[in-house]
Every structure is written in C-alpha cells, then in structure tokens.
Amino acid sequence: MEEYLNLLGTCRRDLPTRRTVVAELLAGCEADAIPYGQEEEDQAHELLELVV
C-alpha cells in the first residue's frame, strides 16, 4: 500500500483519518437518492463498515 501511495504522490494520513475522509465523501453521495432493495442496502452498509 505504501508503495502504491508513493506512486500516486498522495499526502500521508493515518488509516483512521483516511477512513473518516472517505466516509464523509460517501455521506454526501447522490447515489443514496436511488431506491434500492434491502439486500443492496445491507451490502452497502457492510462495505461502509470496512471503510469506517
């Protein structure tokens, strides 16, 4: 991961900070306006748990 981030030239942030930033970006995502079934919603919550 470190080598990949170095190649991208990204700024260094610790993992909890990076997770918070991604969660904030996803919170304002317009995709939330699209109605999905319960299964898709559960999958989205599982994905967010991995990030947060």
> Oligomeric state of the chains?
single chain
Beta percentage is under 5%
Rg estimate, integer Å: 14 Å
The number of strands is 0
Please outline the major beta sheet: none
Specify the number of helices. 3
| Helix-strand topology string | HHH
Helix residue percentage: 55-70%
Span of the ends, CA to CA: 18 Å
Q: Structural class per helix/strand content?
A: mainly alpha
Shape field: elongated
Regions with pLDDT < 50 over 5+ consecutive residues?
none
Query: Quick check: average pLDDT?
Result: 76
Description:
The two termini are about 20 Å apart. The chain has about 50 residues and is mainly alpha-helical. The model has no long low-confidence stretch (mean pLDDT about 75). It has helices at about 1-10, 15-25, 40-50.
In summary, what is this structure?
The chain is 65% helix and 0% strand. The chain is mainly α and 52 residues long.
Topology readout:
Layout: H1 2-8, H2 15-27, H3 38-51
